[in-house]
Every structure is written in C-alpha cells, then in structure tokens.
Design goal:
- The protein has a 4-stranded antiparallel sheet with strand order 2-3-1-4.
- It is built from 5 helices and 4 strands, in the order αβαββαβαα.
- A hairpin with an 8-residue loop joins strand 2 and strand 3.
- It is α+β, with helices and mostly antiparallel strands.
- The longest helix is centred in the N-terminal third of the chain and has 20 residues.
- The structure holds 2-acetamido-2-deoxy-beta-D-glucopyranose (2 copies).
- The site of one 2-acetamido-2-deoxy-beta-D-glucopyranose (NAG) has 6 residues, from helix 2.
- One 2-acetamido-2-deoxy-beta-D-glucopyranose binds next to helix 2.
- Keywords: Carboxypeptidase, Disulfide bond, Hydrolase, Metal-binding, Metalloprotease, Protease, Signal, Zinc.
Length: 136
C-alpha cells in the first residue's frame, strides 16, 4: 500500500519531468490530465484497453489494476469530447486534474526563475530521493 503510493508519486514526477523536457519538441496545448475511477470490471477492462493503445492519444501517468483505484491519464485534444461522452454513458467517475497541460507548463516556466536544465533535472532527482526516504 505504502510502496504503491510512493511509486505513483514517482511516476507522476518522472512523467512531469518528461513532459517539461520534451516541451520544445511538442506542444501540449489543450492536452488534459484526467483522474478516472473504475467502478466495476467493465470499466477496468475499458481502461486496460485504453492503456494498450499506441496511438499516443492516451498517456497513462498512473495505471489502475483494481476497482475504485483511479488512473491518471493525459488525453489528447481530438479524443477528449468522445471520451467524456463515453465516461458519462458508462457512469465512470472522472475529474479534471489539469485542464490545459500546455498552459500549465507555460505558467510554471514564467513563475520560476531561469534555471539551467541540468539544475532542474537535479532538483527533480532530489524530490524522488525524498519520496524514497519517506517510503523506506
Ligand atoms: C477490450 O479489447 C478487447 C480486445 O480487443 C475487446 O474484445 C473488448 O471488448 C474490449 N473491452 C472494452 C471494455 O472495451
Ligand atoms: C458497470 O457499470 C455500468 C454503469 O453503472 C453498467 O452499465 C455496467 O453494466 C456495469 N458492468 C458490470 C460488469 O457490472
């Protein structure tokens, strides 16, 4: 339980870092981060299927393997409305953690002082160390 939670945090940190580092190559404008909670086996099967698609439209930052445990998924703009419709149809609860990841990255850049990439990377590494300390 504890370890699983810690690993989730690390996954999110690593993913955020990945998003920041690859920002120059790709725009995340209008990409959203959804937290989706499966309430029964068919919900879980659906999420499991989504996580295996390789089109790049669904990027799982946090996987779920059991009912009532949420998944965090980055959704590409073209599939967002369809996914929301589907989730409402099958009554799978979700919340929007980040509405526009592209904007969020820009805000974070503006609010932070110019930091060389190497230092940012080191800071991220330190966070992970801290998390490891907490769970060990
Ligand atoms: C998941 O994928 C399998 C194989 O493609 C398919 O048979 C099944 O209906 C899908 N399940 C859901 C819930 O979409
Ligand atoms: C899961 O919940 C949805 C919405 O309540 C329902 O339509 C569906 O039949 C349920 N599936 C299972 C396997 O219980």
């Amino acid at each position: 339980m504890y370890a699983g939670f810690g690993i989730s945090i690390i996954c999110v940190l690593v993913h955020l870092d990945y998003v920041f580092l690859s920002e120059q190559g790709k725009s995340y404008d209008e990409y959203s981060l959804f937290r989706i909670t499966p309430k029964n086996q068919s919900h879980l099967d659906y999420l499991s299927n989504l996580s295996k698609t390789t089109s790049g439209e669904y990027d799982f930052w946090l996987l779920t393997t059991s009912v009532n445990h949420p998944a965090d998924v980055m959704i590409a703009p073209p599939v967002k409305q369809g996914l929301i419709r589907y989730l409402n149809t099958v009554k799978m609860p979700f919340s929007v953690l980040i509405d526009n990841i592209g904007e969020k990255i820009k805000e974070d850049k503006l609010s932070s002082v110019e930091t060389p990439p190497a230092l940012e990377f080191f800071a991220a590494y330190q966070d992970i160390e801290d998390v490891s300390d907490l769970i060990n």
